[in-house]
Specification:
Layout lengths: L1 H17 L7 E6 L3 E6 L7 E3 L2 H15 L2 E5 L5 E6 L4
Length: about 90
């Protein structure tokens, strides 16, 4: 069990280290009762919220293209269903 706790702490630190940097990724996640949000890794507050998933995906893509990073699109249960890469090669 300690291993899972350490992995959780390591993951949280990883996201905190990337927050506010060019390496921070955008996540489209369920928000509140029926809405969707675009969140930046390591940040508590959403960067954007909307009533529809498609609008949240559109905004996340725009933001990721501008930042040259990645988008992770989550399903209703919070599991990643798709990832999009806008990083320069």
């Amino acid at each position: 069990m300690a291993n899972k706790t350490n992995n959780h702490i390591d993951r949280d630190q990883y996201f905190k280290d990337r927050a506010g940097t060019d390496e921070a990724r955008f996540h489209v996640v369920p928000h509140d009762e029926e809405g969707w949000a675009v969140k930046i890794e390591g940040k508590e507050e959403p960067a954007s919220t909307t009533d529809s998933k498609s609008e949240a995906v559109k905004e996340a893509k725009r933001m990721a293209e501008e930042a040259k990073t990645m988008v992770y699109i989550h399903d209703d249960d919070g599991k990643i269903e798709e990832q999009l890469n806008y990083m320069e090669s």
